[in-house]
Amino acid sequence: MSDQQRDSRLARLAPPNRQRVSASRRSRRGLILGVVIAVAASLTACGNPAGSTSPTGDITAGQHAQVVRKSASAMTAVEIDRFERAFSYAVHKGYFDAFNDEHFNHQRNRMHGAELTATAPITAMPGESIAWEYRLLPWHRSFILEAEQMLRAALRQRDHEEGRDPSEADRLFIPYWDATHEQALPGWVLAFQPRGGTAIVPEGVPKGHPAYGLPVGSRYPIRFGRWPGNNIVFDQLPQPAQVSGILAHDDFAGFTQAIDTEATIVQSALPAAKEGIETLKRKFPGNADVETIETAAASPPPQDINAAVKLVNAILGVGYLATSQTARPHPDQEAIRAVKAVYAAFISPPHAVLHLWAGGLDPANPDVRGTVSYFNELAVDPVFWMLHTELDHWWYTWEQSHTDVPQLTGEDAQFQPLTPQEGAWYGGGRLYSLTELTPTRDLPYRYGELYRA
Fold first, then answer.
1. Residues forming a β-bridge with 186
2. pLDDT for the residue 303
């Protein structure tokens, strides 16, 4: 890919406008209200835990599919080598740059119930309508299909250069990360950290990040980082029981919101959470985030979207009170325990947790997160693709026993994660329809097994 082509793409993909949108345009069922209602309810001793049942049955759909996706831990040595050679080559060549840019371009793609900013402390920015959340799973399904197509083309290029048989590319697939059962990254994935690629500078990057001090909208070379589990408020991976509860939802709206936006109450942790708030009041007198949470604990869940945004970002700000301690010579362990007690009052939805756990925090500078948790650069980390393939794996499992589909119409029911210009070199950049992406029998892949708790 020439420098001229990259410059042209940058001109087309200016950084998204991250100014706040009006309250009337925001989803009232997205990340903000889902988390807020759960946390506020937890601190007033309300709420119900998720269910624990899961659909069962053998895979019967998609048997004609050309590719069978496996768990990363179930791959053969040949399959791992094939994937690593394709992925590292594509990163080195800059082929993931367009994927980074499009994942960052939330105004065009509208594929998140909420996005996490690059700032420290981290903040959440909600989507502008409920359609943004409903697009999460189908949009990423099409995004993964585009990436698999690109990786096969990249592997053919590399095989031609190295005198190998390029037909092996037909057997390449993106595996899924079975995080809930393994509770860790597979060894080969942990060791695989490809270097290269560039991304658009977002707003608010902290000191120590490679984009710090550069003009917003310019490009910077990605400095790969990954510290899995090294985030004291996001240090636990989802458990199979949580996914069982997610799979037990009868409607797509409930299913996708349980993945992306709605927290689960841990009633046994409520007394300790209240004590934690009292400790934080004493430790950080006048702290606006602590005061916001204390006020919310004594009030009904907020219905005004602006108040909801303020509360969820206060919760994230309180988390920063703990993570910022980790680089100090003498961390305040009492403050850390108090923050963890507040966070223990709810189980966060798995989508964000997978990103934040896998990326972790830089031990030398906890203001800097891992690559997979920055929405503008995460495509160069194979874990991003594996965790989203796992979310697709859950959806695929759910689809075997449910007929409900995302309630999307018109342009919201169409998905074009890359433009024709961006995908032209590998024959991609096409438009996908919702009816093409559902049901599973029409997909060009299947999973080797369904998710089972």
1. none
2. 67
